[in-house]
Write a structure and sequence with these properties.
Elements: H1 16-21, H2 27-62, E1 68-71, E2 74-77, E3 83-87, E4 91-95, E5 109-113, E6 117-122, E7 125-130, E8 137-138, H3 141-188, H4 195-205, H5 207-222, H6 227-247
Helix pairs in contact: 2-3, 2-5, 3-4, 5-6
Length: 268
């Protein structure tokens, strides 16, 4: 049996041959499989938030003083400073009203509340966000606890919905960008593929990379990956998509040559 023989049924986009099958499949089948992969990615994001980040926020709120707020663009802090409110592998939350730099966490990201702004420290450097002048934000346990309890489930839901539909949208846009190069490759490689079939193949080629990134997020949450390895996995998920784009067309049938009629053959 020829390993490069064109597949006849599209059901898995994990191999180049499986990706090629979606060029002949219906849009509905492609959408169903894409939805499954998008759900896996959404589950990975929600798990990361719910198990790796939100518990740190809960612990930080429990360490807030009984009084305090952010108003007029300044933090009204009535407790010790600097102080580490909560700390995990991914996120740490601290208060240092002077941003003295004496309290640093080994967590991948550290949120530090100062007198005039919120600063984020990470492997990528330092960023800061000034407090808004026109808002009153609770910085005490009594007000922050019920507010976070009400918002946390909604934020998880928004993260799941945003990841799911965001991936479907990004895949559609990238497939639109990639379909012309795929069609040109098939044209010069003498593969039988029209432009819309090239779009379906390009869309299917993006799913293996998304699955790799979902797995990397799960490993990052479990401690199997550090932040550097997660960044490497992010880059690899793009490269894998490009590899599938250019390898999968080789599993399609060659275009049949147009049969030429003999001009000297008498008509029947």
């Amino acid at each position: 049996m020829n390993a490069l023989r064109e597949p006849t049924f599209a059901w898995e986009p994990l191999t180049p041959r499986g990706v090629a099958a979606f060029a002949r499949a219906s849009f509905e089948r492609l959408f169903i499989v894409q939805s499954i992969f998008a759900l896996i990615a959404a589950a990975a994001v929600v798990w990361l938030l719910a198990d790796g980040i939100f518990p740190v926020i809960n612990d930080a709120i429990e360490q807030l003083p009984d009084a305090g707020s952010i108003h007029g663009g300044r933090l009204d802090w009535r407790d010790d400073s600097p102080v580490m409110l909560a700390e995990g592998k991914i996120l740490a939350i601290s208060v240092d009203v002077e941003h003295g730099g004496t309290l640093r966490s080994p967590a991948d990201f550290q949120l530090e509340f100062g007198r005039d702004d919120l600063r984020l420290y990470s492997l990528f450097g330092e960023a800061y966000v000034p407090y808004p002048d026109d808002y009153l934000i609770a910085a005490n346990r009594g007000d922050a606890r019920p507010a976070w309890g009400a918002w946390a489930p909604d934020l998880l839901g928004l993260a799941a919905i945003g990841t799911f539909f965001g991936l479907l949208l990004v895949w559609a846009v990238l497939a639109t960008v990639y379909c012309l190069p795929v069609w040109l490759l098939c044209f010069f490689a003498n593969r039988d593929l029209n432009l819309f079939a090239s779009w379906r193949l390009a869309a299917a080629a993006l799913m293996p990379g998304a699955l790799l990134l979902s797995l990397a997020l799960a490993l990052y949450e479990c401690g199997g990956f550090d932040l550097v390895q997660l960044c490497f996995a992010f880059g690899m998920h793009l490269v894998i998509g490009w590899i599938y784009l250019f390898v999968s067309p080789l599993f399609l049938n060659r275009a049949l040559p147009v049969e030429k009629k003999n001009p000297f053959q008498p008509k029947t």
